[in-house]
Amino acid sequence: MEKFSIYSIMDIISILFAIIGVYFFVRIWKVWKNINMNIVKARIFLDKRFLEKNWIYILLAGATMTVRQILFLIFFPYDNFAIISTSFFVVSELLELIIFIILVALAYEWFKILIK
Question: Where are the domains of the chain?
Answer without folding.
Answer: 6-115
